[in-house]
Specification:
Blueprint: H1 13-21, H2 29-65, H3 73-110, H4 129-136, H5 138-164, H6 166-170, H7 177-217, H8 222-233, H9 236-257, E1 263-266, E2 271-276, E3 286-292, H10 294-305, E4 310-312, H11 314-321, H12 335-351
Parallel strand pairs: 1-4
Antiparallel strand pairs: 1-2, 2-3
Helix pairs in contact: 2-3, 2-7, 5-7
Length: about 350
């Protein structure tokens, strides 16, 4: 059956556009995480000094200013408001930088696309056999394994960085607050650099995998390609009906215009092409009729009935038949050959 046919065909442009509208765009969350950490590192580089200074001020304030603090409802409210304000003031520049670089990083992966498809709840993804297959299928196990490996490697990197600075960390309790904050930031920067390098390598590999997986998921079967082409072109019955209507219109036009033609060129039995050219009026000859077999016979009958000259020229008739269209001016490539035919017709008229 068509549903069981292997999807071996490359997705069409329409299929790709539809997949983008549905939010089926390959991107790597690991690469996004790496970009976010780069933003954090960049933020520490820009705001690190001010961040350390504010941390020092906050710690001094809490260690010295709240020695006699009483736990009342009013004091709790005031403290919560004060902590929230200090936290926002401390983290706002970093959060804004995270937001900006996060958006830019995702745009770099998938481009600018707006869709609400992914936000719509689909209970069939969970409460159905296909949903359960996705939850416990091979893809889910691959993602789980990838997550475990990622957490393990990040854990190992963190352990090695902390181990490297372990002796210095033990003496941090004796450091001044400013030195403590600066040294802590140095350790965080070193950790971020190593984690970022790992995530970039993993993210690039994952992005290639996700792009390929998305591409394979939207591949089409031969039946789907045929159906799409049929839908884009229209119902064959409608196309046939439209073609018959056009043929009827052309025949009606010919029945009216062939009697006014200047010459009919034939091959001689199978093809007939009627041209109209009035000297001093028309700049170029116009095609007023063409036909093959029975229609060609009808054109020649009309020409004989109305005294239109019929000229036999097999090469010219065959060359023109597949190129010219009824109602159009004669293509320039036939000017020379048709001019000889018209000159012959005009000489015959003048001689007669």
């Amino acid at each position: 059956m068509a549903e069981d046919e292997d999807k071996t065909e490359e997705p069409t442009a329409k299929k790709k556009a539809d997949s983008i509208k549905k939010g089926q765009i390959g991107r790597s969350m690991d690469l996004s995480s790496a970009i976010s950490l780069i933003a954090a590192l960049f933020g520490l580089y820009i705001f690190g000094g001010d961040f350390a200074g504010q941390c020092e001020g906050i710690m001094r304030e809490f260690f010295t200013g709240y020695a006699d603090w009483q736990p009342t409802i009013t004091n709790f409210s005031a403290l919560a408001y004060h902590v929230l304000k200090m936290t926002l003031r401390l983290l706002a520049p970093l959060l804004l930088l995270f937001l900006f670089i996060g958006v830019v990083g995702n745009l770099a992966q998938v481009g600018l696309h707006f869709t609400l498809e992914k936000l719509q709840p689909k209970f069939s993804n969970v409460f159905s056999l296909s949903g359960l297959k996705r939850m416990f299928g091979m893809e889910a196990w691959i993602e789980l394994l990838k997550g475990i490996i990622k957490i393990t490697i990040v854990g190992i990197i963190s352990y090695l960085v902390i181990k490297k600075h372990y002796d210095d960390i033990l003496y941090m309790v004796d450091m001044q607050i400013g030195v403590f904050c600066a040294y802590l930031i140095d350790i965080i920067v070193e950790l971020l650099l190593k984690v970022i390098l790992f995530l970039i390598i993993l993210g690039i590999a994952d992005l290639i995998y996700q792009k390929r997986k998305t591409h394979n998921s939207i591949k089409m079967s031969k039946h789907e390609v045929k159906d799409e082409r049929k839908n884009s072109e229209g119902d064959p019955k409608v196309i046939a009906a439209r073609r018959r209507a056009m043929q009827k219109m052309h025949q009606q036009f010919m029945m009216k215009e062939v009697p006014k033609a200047t010459v009919v060129i034939t091959n001689p039995t199978h093809l007939a092409i009627a041209l109209r050219y009035e000297r001093g009026v028309d700049q170029v000859p116009f095609v007023v009729g063409k036909g093959a077999d029975k229609l060609a016979e009808r054109i020649k009958e009309l020409a004989k009935e109305h005294g239109v000259p019929i000229v036999e020229n097999k090469p010219l008739a065959r060359a023109m038949y597949d190129v010219v269209e009824i109602g159009d001016p004669l293509p320039a490539e036939f000017f020379s050959a048709v001019a000889e035919v018209l000159a012959y017709v005009f000489r015959q008229k003048e001689a007669g």
